[in-house]
Amino acid sequence: MNTILSKQKLSQEVFRMEISAKEIAEARKPGQFIILQMGDEYGERIPLTIADADKERGTITLIFQAVGETTHRLALLEEGDKIANLLGPLGKPTDIEKYGKVVCVGGGIGVAPLFPIVEGMKQAGNEVKVIMGARNKSLLIMEEEMKATADEVIVVTDDGSYGKKALVTEPLKELCETYKPDCVVIIGPPIMMKFAALTTKPFGIKTIVSLNTIMIDGTGMCGGCRVTIGGQTKFVCVDGPEFDGHLVDWDNMLLRLGTYRSKEEEAHHRCHIGLDIKEGEA
Amino acid sequence: MHATREELDAQAKALLKEYDQKNLTARDRAQIPLQDMSTQDPAVRVTNMEEVALGYTENQVRLEAMRCLQCKTKPCIAGCPVAIDIPAFIAEAANGNFAKSVEIIKQSSLLPSICGRVCPQESQCQLHCTVGKMHKDVDKSVSIGRIERFVADYAREHNLETVPEVKAETGKRVAVVGSGPASISAAADLRREGHQVVMFEALHKAGGVLVYGIPEFRLPKKIVEHELNNLKDMGVEIRRNYLVGKTRKISDLMEKDGFDAVFVGSGAGLPKFMNIEGENYVGVFSANEYLTRSNLMKAYKVGSALTPLYDSHKVAVFGGGNVAMDAARTAKRLGAEQVTIVYRRTEVEMPARKEEVAHAKEEGVEFLYLHAPLKILANEKGCVNGIEMIRCELGEPDASGRRRPVEIAGSEKVFEYDTAIIAIGNDSNPLIKATTDGIEVNRRGNFIINEETCETTLKGVYAGGDIVLGAATVILAMGQGRKAAVAMNSYLATL
With contact defined as beta carbons under 8 Å apart, do B96 and B63 qualify? Predict the structure, then answer.
């Protein structure tokens, strides 16, 4: 169970792992996530979106950035190692249907969970354009896969080290004006999702975002992941992770994400020392 | 005055010498002083997570058991949800036959070391005790729960427990969903009959609310682990990290995976919020989240645990049940300077066990009665810095028979707090209902079952515990698990 079958480093701090998980692979649909725990008494539970799955092989693929202690420890595992606890698939799948013209926007590591949605949207008969952005060239992932699947791929970087020097909102606004998509899907850092959703709002285009909040059990039991959607409280783990980007109370979500920030920064620093990892190397 | 275990034991020993000599009349028995159970000193225990109540000594348990009149009418049994033969196990305890005593309990209840700790005895067996009636004080009833706890601990610690006999394999397979008290008791009774039993737990640790909800200081996790190991020794398979409804649906378990019947004991598991302004600010937690962080994720081990805790100084806990007490007492232990339980009614109406309320008070938890929150306030960072509340008075009784809190207009006031914990109960988790055709629920989301058999509206699927009862108690959940198992065993015999 949960054996790591392959592992690649995609970019600075970003890894891809294919893991045997027969039942999750069978049940999983695009947009869903897993929660993992590394097995020790004091380990935390973290949610990660399922990037891909292979029913025949009985495997799922996770793509993750080593940002906290658990993802750092995960990054240190090698092929043949096992992940002690893996629960899924959790959350509701993406609403994949034929919209007509779809724009998918991915930021940073968010490109990974976006990929199966791009595939699904294509299979459903949509024309799909992809905007993918990263801080710099070395953090850009899955460009080849996206190009092979989508009808058009626009790449931007914050520093201009690759593609156009821009934030994703710039080409998104252009596409809203000229291409006039019927649906926009956005996955990325919360601040990016906030501004991308604000970009599509004046155009009245259906906008789906995938939220990644603080979570413990992932089954609806703790309510730590709650967000305000159109004035109502929803749980990301069971009501989401995808919501109407125009209804999300982004500011409240960003505040809640920061609940433990000072402790997380301490922990991140600690694990670089404790695990003997240099900053930027995982 | 805080009497130590040694002092209490010495007193009991002296009295026992006296009473052992004579033939006791009912009047003599009723005059034996009630035995207090020693606890960790409140000043010390708020700095640790160790169990608060230390249990009786052998002398104490024998003396307390001698207080039982062995009434012919056995009113205590009628008060026990699982009808334990209470006078019989107490008689064995009085004679020092602790292993025999626990065997009698185990004919009716599988988890005496747990129920002895968490059952609300004062509103069940002990409410009906004749000794309490003679003293016109339920608090002077025979301490049935403490005796139960002692004999169960004694048997466990002295390896005197016997693994229940399992009948020859029937070849039938049963899935048990969840691993809390309802599921544990159902699994044991189904396995005894010779069925293959697989228990599915969503979390990475089994035990359900016994592990994620009830704190270590009230129920040591090693006891829960021991009970789960007993199940494994009987041949029950426990699969963790498996969310029935998501990983596999019930229909898949029955149609594809060859399970002949399913017991759903998945618990309440959907925290209620108060639906007031500011409830999603930073520093507002459901009791489930607060307790899960500390208990399941061991966040109280600061430095070792990766799951962080919020730095709380002034904590308000809303609710008056055992979960509210657990959350408040946990907050104290995690370093909050001021912890207040805010309840809309008064102490008399509070549903928590008396002992938990008393322990909370001893530990410095404050109580603010007749207050209801209106609005949670926050600073510019969205962190809670106050709660606006309104005073209430008690009006006419409501459907529950308790007097309804009525808000007093104009009495609004802002209180300074940095943390709010909401412990006003749970609704049923909708996951299984949402993914299983044919299961019907009531308007509160609880599964509708046949009262006699615990069968749901879907053939072969039974349910018990909080998923049926709403947030109830461990013993009621256990009772339903056993009831369901009886019906399931007969059902499986017809296949």
Answer: no
Q: Which domains does chain A have, with CATH numbers?
A: 4-90 (2.40.30.10), 101-210 (3.40.50.80)
Structure confidence at residue B286 (pLDDT):
97
pLDDT less than 70: residues of chain B: 1
**CB pair distance less than 8 Å for B301 and A42:** yes
**Domains plus CATH for chain B?**
5-157 (1.10.1060.10), 173-269+427-493 (3.50.50.60), 273-424 (3.50.50.60)
Residue of chain B whose alpha carbon sits nearest to that of A68: B306
Closest by CA position to B436, among listed B279, B281, B246, B302: B246
Cross-chain Cβ contact A219/B243 below 8 Å:
yes
CB pairs under 8 A between A and B: 124
Using CB atoms, which residue from B248, B279, B429 is nearest to A219? Answer: B429
Residue A55 has pLDDT above 90, yes or no: yes
The Cα–Cα gap between B237 and B228 comes to 10
CB atoms near residue B54 (< 10 Å): 14
Chain A residues within 8 angstroms (CB to CB) of chain B: 23-24, 27, 37, 39, 41-45, 68-70, 84-90, 216-224, 226-228, 233, 238, 249, 251-252, 255-256, 258-260, 263-264, 267
CB contact at 8 A, B52 and B45? yes
Nearest-Cα residue of chain B relative to residue A261: B308
pLDDT digits (tens, 9 = 90+) for A173-215: 999 999 999 999 999 999 999 999 999 999 999 999 999 999 9
Give how far A23 is from chain B: nearest CA, Å: 6
Q: Which helix (H) or strand (E) holds A103?
A: strand A101-107
**Tens digit of each residue's pLDDT (9 = 90 or more) over B157-202:** 999 988 888 999 999 999 999 999 999 999 999 999 999 999 999 9
* B490: exposed, middle or buried (Cβ count in 10 Å: 0-12, 13-18, 19+): exposed
- Is the separation of the CB atoms in A28 and A42 below 8 Å? no
- Give CA–CA dist A156/B269, Å, rounded: 43
Cβ of B307 within 8 Å of Cβ of A216? The answer is: yes
- The model's pTM is 0.93
The pLDDT of residue A282: 45
Helix (H, G, I), strand (E, B) or coil at B238: strand
Q: Which residue of A has its CA nearest to B274?
A: A233
Residue A273, pLDDT score: 55
Distance from CA of B276 to the nearest CA of A (A): 11
Q: How far is B20 from chain A (nearest CA, A)?
A: 48
Q: In what order do the strands lie in the sheet with B173-177?
A: B237-239, B196-200, B173-177, B261-264, B461-463
pLDDT at residue B21, as a whole number: 79
Structure confidence by residue, pLDDT tens digits, B469-491: 987 888 899 889 999 999 999 99
Q: How far apart are CA B100 and CA B155, in angstroms?
A: 9
**A58 pLDDT above the threshold of 60:** yes
The Cα–Cα gap between B13 and B175 comes to 49
